[in-house]
Predict the structure.
Amino acid sequence: MAFPKATGLAVFRRGDALWLVFDRPGPVDLAGLVKSAPALSGLARVESPYATVLRLPTLAKLGGGDMGAKISGDGRSWQISLGRGRDLRPAKGIEQRRESLADGGASLLLQATRPGPVVKLQDPEAGDEMAVIPLLTTGSGIAEGAAWPDFRVLPSFQGVVVVPISDRTRVEALPNGVVVTTDGEPGGAPSPVVPKPIAETVPPPLEADDTAVPEVVTATPEAVSPEGAASSAAEPAVEPSSTKVESVVGIFDLPRWRRGGEANFSSDEAALRSAVTEASNRDKPLGRLALAQFHFAHGRYAEALGDMALLEKQAEDGDKDVLALRGAILALADRDAEARADLERSELNGVPEAEMFRGYVAARALDWPRAAAVFGAPIPSLDDYPKPARMLIRRVAAEALLRAGNSLMAQTFLDAMKLDMPSPEDQAFHDYLTGLQLAQAGNKEEAIKAWTALADSPVDEVHARSQFDLTELQLADGLIDDRQAASQLEALRFVWRGTDFEFDLLDRLGTLYVASDQPRKGLVTLRQAAANFPSHPRAKRATEAMSQAFHDLYLGDKADRLPPLTAVALYDEFRELTPSGADGDRMVTALADRLVKVDLLDGAARLLENQVNKRLVGLEKAKAGTRLAAIRLLDGKPDLALDAIKASEVPDIPRRDGTTPPPCRGRALFETGDTLKGLALVRDDNSLDGLWLKADLSWRMREWPAAATALDELIAGETKRLQEADPSMRPPPDLTVDPAAALAETGDDGEAAAKRDEQFNKVLAPLILNQAIALSLANDRPGLRMLGKARGTQMAKGPFAKAFATLTSPSSNLADSIGAAMKSVDQLAEFVVDYRDRLKNQSLSVPEPAPDAAPPAADAPAP
């Protein structure tokens, strides 16, 4: 169909007939339409002087009950495709807003942009009159019809269709939509522009200490509106229910405040503003209050707050009407802190609306117990509030009651949402809360289905919260693991950030990352939660979780899971989480130990340097300084080793193992060129560390007799260490010396002998070979013969048998011995490796042994 000017269209079906209504008269070629589409046979034009109306009396050929319509066009040209496979519902649902009016009537606003004129038509089959309003917006219609006491709204593919039932019904097209109004009972009238003081027209609210019982109104769903089903078009007719919703009479008279409703909003607002201007100074506050009440009743909260700003004195004086109204406006305007300040005033104790909005603000603050206590008791009727407000209050009330475990009472609010023609957004919240109700009832499968269906919800809050709760339910039920749960929650990071959801998401996501071995992600996320929400009541808990995760990474059972480089990088990034005291010191030294074992010496030194210079005192500082000096020596930096020794010197602490002993200082001096002073420091040191260092320094100075002597002492010291660590390392007694030992059960067997041989070849044999080399280079033939006699049998079983035999054999001449010694001098490399391995294996992070425990093996300094 084509028209010379923009023309609105309504498409709907009633009974078995399809109607097409254009809001402008125009020619129609019925014969041509039927010829091009035989299924349209029977199509007829309904006469109307103001519109083009076409009616198809039977839909059987187009699919009957399954017939749908697909509509496209720009107002000048319309294309309507009918039949099976087309849309069964309108492409865009029209938002509806019900209002009760001051005279006892009601109005229903069907929101649409620039609707066409009201076209009145007679239905030839039903015999009643229809008011049809075509629209220019393609596919904008009514998805589901509704039966009201005074009129019916028919479903449509496009446009609005109202069937009046009583003479009190009026249908008007306004710039912002279609308004259906039902007049009140005779005698009803709007309130005056400037009302009398509230105390003269409404019974005063009960004070907190009043003993009177407030009037309770009990309503069932068939009469949800305050006017009652018999006298108002406020709610569609529904089946009776045994569940009762109780309400208490409050001080807000929204029908009176709303005056003529949305249809007369502009004229009513102008009259109220004029009344304020013309009022005397004494009456101006009442006029301003009336204007604020008017804006509040229409859901214009910004304008209402502007009106209330001129009533500050009345608020300061404790005027109940002003305080209660301002508190309600602030609450619905999402200014919770200011709302709470007004609503908690003692002047409002016993005011039902104040208590209701206290519960509303408590629910927004996630104070579920307090909110549930409010909404579990009678509250003022919500039916007169603007639809967005009443839906919002029902939503938070239902959630508060569910969170508190009162599912039965929550159901009454969910039912009220369902009966109030919810918008797509309200329906999404209803479905989310239904999933929560199912989950709390233990019906996990149905809850998962409900929340899964909301994965593509266009309402960001519903999308985010439903998928968060779905993930938690799946995780608790073992359907997914921590890593999968973290992946699902990560996808919600930028979906919605309202109320406390962002903190809850970050907090939970951080713990899941930590639990699934993704420590950096976990720590970063927990830090974001704590830093971005410092005043959140659970921010401290997030910080504690972060500290615990950091502790476990370096001191707990997860300490060895991180590669060393990752461990030190993570430590540098989150250094501020290092705990104070002994735990922090153990954490740093344990990390340093790991770095030493993989030759990351500079990183280990930097960690210990910070400990020595900034954290430690006393004995612990001296021990860490010694460890730092040893690492610097191992890294070939003797100057820095001396600096570390100097920085860790602590007065009045006697020398002991691990507190800067002479071997470490002596080696540092030797390495810097102060050879004599270095040797002097270790000359009288017979500790195992000292014996190692004396042997090493003598060897490096080519003092072969001294080196041979030092190695002999070192071999004795290492033998003693092995036997003290494991008594089975002691050789069996010599029966030729002590025959009585044969009577004792020594427990020696082949396994013990094999273990002794293994330890001998691993620890002692290299040192014995080095001693033979030193004796050979010192030209000490008697010493070689004695060494061969003492150690020949044991050395013959090991990897150095041939070299040792060549050096110590009596048949070898001096040249052969020296040649063999020079070929074997490469054993010095093994000697150095031993030093490095011993350093890497020593640790400052292990706990101190108990006083009665066996002493640990002595640690050795760097070569």
About this structure: Residues 750-777 form the longest helix (28 residues).
